[in-house]
Design a protein that fits this description.
By secondary structure, this protein is α/β, with parallel strands linked by helices. Helix content is 35%, strand content 25%. The chain contains 9 helices and 14 strands. The N and C termini lie far apart (41 Å). Bound molecules: zinc ion. Residues 58, 60, 63, 116, 133 line the site of zinc ion.
Length: 260
């Protein structure tokens, strides 16, 4: 990846539990999914940064609510999915497109990851991915517009990224997701270790993100739909034998939807 030395990535908290990720090199900044312009603008002003790009993953208000205001205020490029209606975009992207983030020289490639919404995209570099509401730490997004098969396919696409890839999700849902994951796989030692580590991070007021693809492969039930333990737990919960990973994924997603 083309990446200047000294690039830093910060979570800017917004709403209840969103993270608006800001990439910056000390002069220029880009923001991923600016659901609200206020915390982003405050962050930029506090550090004397100029916004040079906006990257949107999907059309939900908590991801694009501040996009038009920021794009106008800074006169910067606003990238987003070709398949969704988002006001203020200057460039519409689809799978296979590559962009160099203006002002930062960071090269990202675009993946189509439908499921949470129909046109959802992710931005991937060799060592990071901004995945919006598709993949969460120990969880995945709800299926508002897509089918389980689409979401399972999108998650497999992300799961094929190198294990060290840092995963920048858009919400701090980790502890609730881990509680569910432990119900699915009570015997997963790595998941148990992770639950202790993430609980300590939250108790200290730190974000649990980014995680890594490797960590998700070890502990995220939605990426483990071929693991015998997950197949067995999902089949037991569904009350029938589940044959394919998509059937297992569908059952685990439904189980999570009703999990309290
Ligand atoms: Zn969303």
């Amino acid at each position: 990846m083309l990446q200047k030395d000294g690039l830093r990535i910060h979570p800017v908290p917004a709403f209840e539990d969103n993270y608006l990720w800001v990439l910056e090199d000390g002069r220029h900044a880009a923001v991923v999914d600016p659901g609200d312009e206020h915390p982003v603008q405050a962050f930029l002003e506090s550090r004397g940064l100029a916004l040079t790009a906006i990257l949107a993953t999907h059309h939900h208000g908590d991801h694009v609510g501040g996009l038009e205001w920021l794009a106008k205020r800074w006169g910067c490029e606003a990238f987003g999915p070709a398949g969704e209606k988002i006001d203020g975009l200057t460039r519409r992207l689809r799978e296979g497109d590559r962009i160099v983030v203006p002002g930062l020289d960071v090269e990202l490639s675009v993946l189509d990851v439908p499921g949470h919404t129909r046109g959802h995209i992710a931005y991937a570099g060799p060592n990071l991915v901004f995945c919006g509401d598709t993949l969460f730490a120990c969880g995945c997004g709800r299926l508002f517009e897509g089918t389980p098969a689409q979401m399972a396919d999108s998650l497999s696409k992300l799961a094929r990224l190198p294990a060290a890839t840092r995963v920048y999700c858009a919400h701090e849902y980790t502890m609730a997701n881990i509680r569910f994951a432990l119900a699915v796989e009570p015997g997963n030692a790595k998941l148990f270790e992770r639950s202790l580590r993430e609980a300590a991070a939250r108790a200290a007021g730190r974000p649990t993100l980014p995680s890594t693809i490797g960590e998700e492969l070890d502990t995220n039930p939605f990426l483990r739909c071929a693991a015998p333990e997950v197949v067995a737990a999902a089949s037991k919960h569904a009350g029938r034998a589940l044959a394919t990973p998509v059937e297992v994924f569908t059952a685990v997603r439904e189980w999570k939807n009703g999990f309290r």
